[in-house]
Amino acid sequence: MVAFADLSPSFLVGLSSLILPVASSGFLDAGNVLRSTVCEQIATEVSSSSVVYYTGSSQYAKDNYHWSASSSQASECSFEPATAEDVGIALRILGQTQTPFGVKSGGHAANANFSSTPGVQIAMYSFSDVVYDSATQTATVGTGLLWDDVYAALEQYSVTVVGAKVTGIGVGGVALGGGYSYLTNQHGLSIDNVVAYELVLPNGTVTDITSSTDPDLFFALRGGFNNFGIVTRVTLKTHPQAQVWGGRISYSLDQWEGASKAIANFWANVTDPKASIYNTYNYIYGVAEMSIIIFYDAPTCPEGIYDEFLLAPHFEQDISTRSYVSFLQSLPLNATSGLRSVFHWVALEEITMPVLDMVANETLAWAAELIDSSGLIVSYDVDPYLPTLYDHADSPTAYPPTRDRGYSYIQVYYGWADSKYDATMIEAVDASAQHMTQVLTDDGQDIANVAVYPNNAPPDMALEKMYGDNLPRLRAIKKAVDPDNVMGLTGGWKF
């Protein structure tokens, strides 16, 4: 994926000047700004440390901004709660008035209405604490943070947590949705490392959820997103973290074959869990190129693991020893900010040259097909993981629905400019995923029914395809926790 939550100043200015759709009654203030009755009720009842913003405010623009234009909307107002109790007050008001709302952590959702809304936009920025406990070897982090902030804050203790592998991603969607990382082969998904959630229930009650206090909710929150309330803080296991070795190597189209051979040989031969690669076949603004990110979780890398990548012809490289956060922030993954976006996800049992040739062909074929539909970026990413990547959870999680074995994955991303092509792009990404699944199945890979990662699923994805046999249990937990369906007023994957 070539993606990063980069706030474009021109986008923010444009968003702050939008005329708001009104979901509830309101009034014009002295500055001719429409003030929603619901927003004013929230502002009146919460503590003075929490703030409601309206159009024309730069903070309102920031609160409503999303990395993907297809996920951005203009809300009636934005609300920045400073305490979990104030989140609870807002939830009670929103439920009583049946007002739509969105909950934004980092704002990296691609699908429309998932963390944005025409109603009340809740932005979690004030939950920005990082508290390290050396005795329990855990870190409690606020869901208003980016993972970059978390990694940087923990660096002084020589520890880290399993979070996003791309810079600019918020804590919330990863800690509630899954979380694949350069550290996943060693420590599992981000949700496998969660030990507690501070959760504001739909009725406004603030509670701590652990495997012992509420096993059902602890299961459901790890992969179940915002169906059960609003999470304000997450406590995760920490792991020792020294400097790391790695960086990016870039290959032009005529150099793809050598790079693909290196990927196939890495998958076939490297079992060291400290070694990880992230490979992107890209067509970006008319140029075909491949970027391979190589990573080793130590200051130096053993000989032989990445020699083939470095010896293959390439046009650019940036490889060095540096801190983990510096490694992540050195990667130029912000080219898609402000575009409309859609993702998809296809599992792999094996990564061979025929598989990589298929991926390369899909990249070039769909780039040519979509260029007349304002398609600016087409990216097919191949993420190899060890079959043991799902062996690190202490108890079952909502996602993945089965942990019998681990898979590698193809992540598909399309970025385009014009909203009139939204349906075209979603149909295209579905068609590409279906085609690759069929090719892989015909080649003997048993991947047709592997769960799709919810954070990289297109908006038309069926819940059964992501949650499998866990879905009935998740629906029962949702009904018990939220009988009035308050969380149904917000977006996302709804149980």
Q: Give me the secondary-structure category.
A: alpha+beta
Biggest sheet, spatial arrangement of strands: 17-14-16-15-19-20-18
Q: Would you give the CATH topology of the largest domain? A: Alpha-Beta Plaits
Helix amount: 25-40%
Number of helices: 15
Question: What is the global morphology?
Answer: globular
Q: Quick one: biggest sheet?
A: 7 strands, antiparallel
Give the beta-strand count. 20
Instruction: State the end-to-end CA separation.
Output: 28 Å
Kindly state the mean pLDDT as a whole number?
A: 93
Rounded to an integer, what's the Rg over CA atoms?
A: 22 Å
Q: Which regions are unreliable across 5 or more consecutive residues at pLDDT < 50?
A: 1-24
Number of domains: 4
CATH class of the largest domain: Alpha Beta
Would you identify the CATH architecture of the largest domain? 2-Layer Sandwich
The portion of residues forming beta strands comes to 15-25%
